User: What shape does this take?
Amino acid sequence: MHPRSRCARLSRLAVGAALLAAALASHAQDYPTRAIALVVPFPAGSPTDAMAREIGADLRATLGQPVVVENRSGASSLTGTQYVARAAPDGYTLLLMTTSHLINAQLQPKPGYDPFDSFVPVTELIKSPVVFVVRSTLPATNMAQFANYARGRSVSYATWGIGSNTDIYGAMISDAIKAGLLRVPYKGEAPLANDLLGGQVDSAMMTVGMYKAQSKTGKLRALAVNGPKRLDAFPELPTLLESGVPGPSVAGFAGILAPAGTPAAIADKLATHIQQYIQKPEVAARWNEQ
Assistant: This one.
């Protein structure tokens, strides 16, 4: 290619890149101009769903456009996650993701998305442990008693779905206590909680927020927490490791993602508004150990 032609081409590319950058900046400045969909890949009624609705209400107040929470549950969050991965990268379709986002990508042969390349991060929301809970009529007040009771009996363990973090936690606990727990997968935490309260299943992992809400019924009993330390809300509750169970000790997490290709300026704008909300003292106190 002639040097002059090469220079002309590079000049056109530079001008094009500058125009594109200006257009994206203008788009981000005007954003949003219509409703935003915040997809929750779990059923309504869970702490994750409640979190999304809080964020949506605040974004509506600060950005001036509706934020519609869409519950697209199924396949341990795969259904909703795949939907967002295929959405237009314009900032109008967002995903509230949890630990299952990464687990599914490792366990499923064809998850339908790449946990990193298919999305751009917007912001982290919380890090949260889960608690091991049994129906109150089960004769166990600690993990040692639960292990003794479960061995040789058909004791069920409910999970939020096949391949979810609680599914893996349950398998690890079952192996650790040598009990052979019967796995019962659900389509999320809310329907699991209903059956646990009703006595249809024996045990499960629950988010701290869900356990807080349901513990007042007297139908549940928490035996241990899966995180690396005890909970401020329930300081008497030992960790699994303290209970002699070498199971999971890593807290889960939740955050907001957008489809790959979403302009950084839009992701940054959303992150700024969301962080301003969740860092308010009253919100932080309420969301602590959700």
